[in-house]
Design brief:
The chain is α+β, with helices and mostly antiparallel strands. It contains two helices and twelve strands.
């Protein structure tokens, strides 16, 4: 009898140890959005893009009621922004592109909850790109003429050394003009430019 009780106790402890990690990994991500949430929301879109939870590379909060995520499949990759209303979510931005064969990145300006963000994301499988440099500019107009002017003293950098995949989400000051955009350079260890992109503007 004592042997049976001891065996039952040992099995109970073992099951408890096995279940505890499973409970931890099953916890929903911050702000309630999980990879499965993205899959379920996208299934409700008029033009569905099939993907699995394993193809969701990252999920981050964007303001108080928005969530941003990056998904990559064999045929397409896209940046996705969801807005939460009560307990439901809807897609407010879907930026799609074909998968890139080499090192790449994109820079986007997004607005959520009356705040603006600089979002940069990409892949660096060759480990050639070491750093992103963000040079800000603004567009001014005088009559029919437009002029592009650099904004000095607020250059930003982001280290991507030894990162196969990377992303950064940076809030922007409210004082920045709406015509703001970024000239983004990826450089190698010697400071040589490898990839260059221009972000969008929000005006």
């Amino acid at each position: 009898m004592k042997q049976r009780i001891g065996l039952f106790f040992a099995i109970t402890c073992l099951v408890g140890l096995l279940i505890s990690p499973l409970k931890q990994t099953a916890q929903p991500d911050a702000y309630g959005v999980t990879p499965q949430t993205l899959v379920d929301v996208m299934k409700q879109q008029p033009e569905t893009i099939p993907f699995s939870t394993k193809q969701v590379y990252w999920i981050e909060p964007l303001g108080d009621r928005h969530t941003i995520a990056f998904v990559k499949t064999a045929k397409v990759q896209f940046l996705l922004v969801l807005k939460q209303t009560d307990s439901t979510y809807r897609v407010v931005h879907l930026i799609r592109q074909a998968p890139q064969p080499t090192d790449w990145f994109e820079g986007r300006l997004l607005e959520a909850d009356q705040k603006r963000y600089l979002v940069a994301y990409g892949e660096n499988p060759s480990q050639t790109m070491q750093q992103l440099t963000f040079d800000p500019y603004k567009v001014t107009s005088s009559g029919e003429r437009e002029q592009t002017l650099p904004l000095t003293g607020i250059k930003r950098t982001f280290n991507i050394n030894r990162k196969d995949h990377f992303h950064t989400i940076q809030p922007l000051p409210e004082a920045f003009p709406r015509s703001l955009f970024f000239d983004i350079h990826a450089v190698d260890a010697d400071g040589h430019e490898q990839v260059r992109r221009l972000s969008n503007t929000l005006d």
